[in-house]
Each structure stands twice: as structure tokens, then as C-alpha cells.
Amino acid sequence: MRAFIIRRIGQSVLDCLGVAVVTFLLLRIAHDPVYVLLPPESTQEEIETLRKAMGFDRPLPVQFAFFMGRLLRGDFGNSFVMAQPASLLIWERMPATLGLSLAGMAIALIVAIPLGVLAAFRRNTLVDTFCTSFAVSGQAMPIFWFGIMLIIVFAVQLKVLPVSGSGSFLHLVLPAVTLALNLAPIIMRLTRSRMLDVLSQDYIRTARSKGVMERAVLFRHALRNAAISVVTIIGLQFGRLMGGAVITEAVFAWPGVATLVVSSIYNADFPVVQAATFYLAIFIVAANTLADIAVAWLDPRISRG
Amino acid sequence: MTTEARPVASISAPGREAPADVRGGVPLGHRLWRVRYGLIGAFIVLLVLACAFLAPWAAPHDPYRGVVSRRLIPPAWEAKGSAGNLLGTDQVGRDYLSRIIFGSRISLAAGFLSTVLAALIGIPLGVTAGYFGGRWDSFVSFAVNVMLAFPGVLLALAVISVLGPSFVNLILVLGVTSWPLYTRVVRTEVMSCREQEFTTAARGIGGTQRRIILRHILPNLASTILVVSTLEVAHNILREAFLSFLGLGVQPPIPSWGGMLSEGRTYMLNLWWLAAFPGIAIFTTTLGINLLGDALRDFLDPHQTS
């Protein structure tokens, strides 16, 4: 187990390094990074000063070493608009994004897992058709549009919930439901197919043939063994969760990282965009690693095999 | 599970059977439903394709020409609607139905072209990684892991912030950020093909690696690639719509569903249709492609009924 954890953490450190490389290259896909980093009205002198300061005139590997040195100190430069370190701005916004993500994930799990189990247990019945249809239409739904429709119905027509922004628990409801819709269909489909796998195992057939009641088969035998798969599923969906949070925040003006990123793009405030991309990716790597370790802890076969 | 143990009714059911089926296998009605879903998907896809190709003839009005006296007319069935503008008009008096019909061109073009780009990057990487293995494989798998660590939309946003918004950049960004799925799926598939007898046989009679890959392995990947492609097209249509919605994709006055949604949002407090119709168009198109993709998977890969 310890060897597995060490190996897995080593791999995630390597992934973080890869994330840093991509973040570094992000700026270099422009013809001349200086124009991305400086406001359009800068003078020739300012441009040359920055080029020297950032080392853009030096070879790429040297630039990368320079970049890594700053990155390890969490230094992505100052935001052009707010004249504060970009990292600081991101970290101020992070709690709002994480709060929204957790709420969305919680709703998605509460809805999707029971539906997935039910669909598998009542496979090829009307119940299954209904659940699967829900998943198929959910996957095709543009969630930013779904969010707007929720606003029209619940905030504009019924006036029971606020349109956008944050501050109270009620502000969280619509964004969290929107975000949950981005996750629930895929979680439901995965739960259903894992559950079908479990239900086809020998020990389930043994339990059934012994005359164990169907309800006991489901709750005592099948669900317990499907739980491990569910943890894996949650771990794998973190990337999707953060992607969904980006979209949801943009629709509801939720004061998280993504809203800041979008406004930074309009303002050509690149350091903030770069810092946000980096930190969210690192967060996803960390979440995936933790999920893998949790699964290995629940299912010893994995760390040994 | 042996065949004898199974009730007669389930023998006709395709694919791997789970004991949840003991009560009678896949009923005929349910299987017909599945076929019907696929047909509905195919019908929707054909309809959207027809809209895109025949837009100049199918659209009742010019999607760019606004009539100032006819602004913000509600859909024809509303109290103040007009039969001349079936889905009403927008804030500058352009016919909404015509703009929706022309919008299908942007969505399909962006979805299709970016997926082709993703396939051109992802498939060669996946094939070579799966076939040659070793260090190259480790490197490719590492690259896939790193790409998947970025929340897809955010990476696309970041790249757009550097390149600037335009249709070509949109396709580049969507393509370059969505290849890892191809690589991952193709790599696994190639690894299993490599060990199969037809590959060993081809190697045995002196086939070159190039020939084995192109003539023996690639044709076996066709159905997988087709299924992944339908999913990717649908996914990229959604992402294009979101980027255009943020104003970072196709620029106005070109009609795109995402862009129309973003303009319509300003009026959503009392003019619901401006925000509703583009979304319905995006949803229906994506749903059609997904249904078709699911049906294709059932049809091409009977081992994997889901």
C-alpha cells in the first residue's frame, strides 16, 4: 500500500510538471508574447523593457527555467487591471468556486446514483428507459442555456430565487442545480453500467439461488461492492466538474475563479488567466490522486496488482 | 453463464447478459425503442444537415437584414405575433427563424472541422503509442494525462485569450484541446489488435510495420473511431456554443446559436423566446448526434450493449 501511494504521488508530481510546461507554452503560442502581456497602448520602450525583464530574448529552455523558478514561488506576475499578484486574486476566488463545485457534486450524486442503481436493477423496463432517457437528454443539454432557462422560470417568472450573484444560501441553489446537470447524466450512466457488472457476478447469483430476498441482494451484496466503483467515478469526474463550474459561474456571475478568468480575458489580463489555468489543473491532479489512493485503500487488490 | 441456464426468451438478446435479465431478457418492445431512438437521431442529424446546406433556400428571410419597424416581434403563435416571422424577430428586426437556420452552418462546421483536427492529432498518436509501446507510449500517455488535467473549457478560453477570437482560431482551439479522447481510446484498441492472430500472421509473412498499421490495424479501428467521432462532434458543438456565448467565438453579425443566446440573454426578463430558441436548436442537434452515436455503438459493437 505504501509503495502504491509513493508511486502514485510520484506520478502526480510528474503530471504537475507537465501542467507547468503546458501553462508555460500557452504564452508562447502567440507570435510575440510581449503583445499579449502588455496593454495595447504601451510604448516601444515599455515593450523592450518587458522583453528584457521576462527574458523573451533568451533561448526557450532558459526561459522555462526562469518560469519554473517564479512558479515555485507562486509568482505569475501582477494583474494588469488590479495591480495585485495574480495568484493572490485567484486564491481569493477559490473558496467560492470550490463551494459551488462541492454543492453541484453533492446534488449530482444524490440524484444520479440512486437512478443508476435503479436503472441497472430494473434493466430493460420502463424505469430503465426513463432513467436512460434522462441521462441522454442531460448529456445533450448546453448547461449554460439550462442555467438561463432556470433563471427565466424560477427568478423571473416565479420570483422565488435570485437571478445571479452570491451572498445567501438561496443564491447557491440555481448554480448548483445547473452544475449538477453537467455531472448527473454521466455519473448515472457509469453507475448503471458498473452496477450491471456487479449484478452479473457469481456471488450475486449464489445469493439469489440461496433464496435471499431481492432487496437484500441489492442492499447487502450488490451496493456494497459497487461503492468502490462509485468512488472511482467521482475521482474521474473532477475535470468535468471544474469545467462545468467555469460555465456555470459565467452564467450566474458567481464570484469564483471562472468569472474572474472570463473578465480577465476581456481585459487581456493574461497573468490572471495563466494562474487560474495552472491552479485549477493542479487541483484536478490532486483530486484524481486522492481518489486513486482512496480506491486502493477500499480495494486492496488494486495496490497489490 | 451457460446457455442451458438461461430462459429461452433471452437467447435472442444480443451481447453479454447480466442476471438482472433472468426475468425475460430484452423485450422486443424495448429493442424496437432502441432502434427507434437511433432513427430519431438520424432524422434530426439529416434535418440539421439539410438546414446547413440549403440555408439560402430554406430560410424565409435574409438573416442579416434587419427591419427597424419590425423589431422584437414575438413568435407567430403569441398574441402580438406575425405570420411573416414564425419565430419572431430579434432586437434589430432580423427574422429569428432565418438566423436559426443559418446558425446551423456555424455549429456543424465548427463541430465537424474541430473534430477532424482532433482526429488528425489524436489517432496517429494513439496508433503509434499502442503499436510501438515503450518510451514513446509512456510519453504519449503522459501527454494525455496532462491534457486531461485541464478543465477543457478553461484551456480553450486561455488559448483564445492569447490568439484572439475568430472562427479559424475557434476550430484550432477546440481541435487542439480535444484530441486526448481519440488517443486514449485508439491506443487501448491497438494494443489488443497487436496481439491478435491477423497481426502476427501479417508480420510472419513479412509485412512491413507501415503496411501492418495501415492495412491491418487501422481498418479494425474504423467503428471505434466513428463512434468516438460522433461523441466528439456533439461535445465540440456544445463548446463552440459556449465560447460564442461568451463572445469569444464567432463574431456578430454572423448568426451562431451561442452568439444569439448571448444577445438574447439581455432581453430574457420579458422576451423569453430570444434566449429559448437558440438553446433548443443546440440541444436538439446535440441530442440527435448523441442518439445516432449510441445506436451506431450498439450496431457496430454488439459486445458492449449499454
**Radius of gyration from the alpha-carbon trace of chain A, in angstroms:** 24 Å
Average of per-residue pLDDT values of chain A: 85
Number of strands of chain B: 0
**Which range does the strand content of chain A fall in?**
under 5%
Profile the largest sheet of chain A: none
Residues in helices of chain A, as a percent range: over 70%
Give the overall shape of chain A, derived from the CA principal axes.
Answer: flat
Q: Report strand % of chain B.
A: under 5%
Helical stretch count of chain B? Answer: 10
SSE ordering of chain A? HHHHHHHHHHHHHH
Encode the helix/strand succession of chain B as letters. Answer: HHHHHHHHHH
Amount of helix of chain B: 55-70%
Helix-strand makeup class of chain A:
mainly alpha
Condensed summary:
Chain A has 14 helices and no strands. By secondary structure, chain A is mainly alpha-helical. In chain B, helix 2 runs antiparallel to helix 8 (209-245), helix 8 (209-245) packs antiparallel against helix 10 (272-300) and helix 9 packs antiparallel against helix 10.
Question: In terms of topology, how is this protein built?
Answer:
The complex is a heterodimer of chains A (305) and B (306).
Chain A lengths: L1 H27 L4 H5 L6 H11 L5 H13 L13 H36 L4 H15 L2 H15 L11 H31 L2 H8 L4 H23 L1 H15 L4 H10 L3 H29 L1 H5 L1
Helix pairs in contact in A: 1-13, 5-6, 5-8, 5-11, 5-13, 6-8, 7-8, 7-11, 8-10, 8-11, 9-10, 10-13, 11-12, 12-13
Chain B lengths: L27 H31 L37 H37 L1 H16 L2 H12 L3 H11 L2 H15 L2 H8 L4 H37 L11 H9 L6 H29 L6
Helix pairs in contact in B: 1-2, 1-10, 2-3, 2-5, 2-6, 2-8, 2-10, 3-6, 4-5, 5-8, 6-8, 7-8, 8-9, 8-10, 9-10
